């Protein structure tokens, strides 16, 4: 399995990479569209005892128990508000299915390597290890997240144990 890395500028065929744009608070983020399996409206999750706060719980997705992470809690972006715009993005990361709760999704954006700049080293809500870079389209800026790295980090290993 090959992966494209916008960080190195080796996007296949010189074409752009597609990112699903979503919001958390006042910021707009992007994740590789190829990791997205589906987008669902927010539904109540079953809480798991002793799970970290950012792990909302689990949902039953067509017979499969899926762990759900609230990205607003994960990134310390204030108290989440669940409304008609709140969605769960179902991701397939290395064969593991999981959901992430975000405030809303806006669109799928294609970015060329020239539109992706390295993320500046500064105190962000999460480590720069998880950043691909900053994507710019006209006046719009997307914080591009390496969802593979984020979801395979040590603490996310808890998710698999909880879902088992």
Short description, anyone?
The protein is 10% helix and 43% strand. By secondary structure, the chain is mainly β.
Task: Describe the protein in words.
It holds the Pfam family CheW. The chain is mainly β and 164 residues long. The chain has one domain: Beta Barrel (OB fold (Dihydrolipoamide Acetyltransferase, E2P)), CATH 2.40.50.180. The protein is globular and about 45 Å long.
Key descriptive features of the protein:
164 residues; mainly beta; OB fold (Dihydrolipoamide Acetyltransferase, E2P); six-stranded mixed sheet; five-stranded mixed sheet; 3 helices; 11 strands; 10% helix; globular; disordered N terminus; CheW
Q: How do the strands and helices of this protein lay out in sequence?
A:
Elements: E1 17-24, E2 27-32, E3 36-41, E4 55-61, E5 64-70, H1 71-74, E6 87-93, E7 96-102, E8 104-111, E9 116-117, E10 131-137, E11 140-145, H2 147-151, H3 157-163
Parallel strand pairs: 2-11, 5-7
Antiparallel strand pairs: 1-2, 1-8, 3-6, 4-5, 6-7, 9-10, 10-11
User: How is the largest sheet built, in terms of strand order?
Assistant: 8-1-2-11-10-9
CATH secondary-structure class: Mainly Beta
- Domain tally: 1
Total number of strands: 11
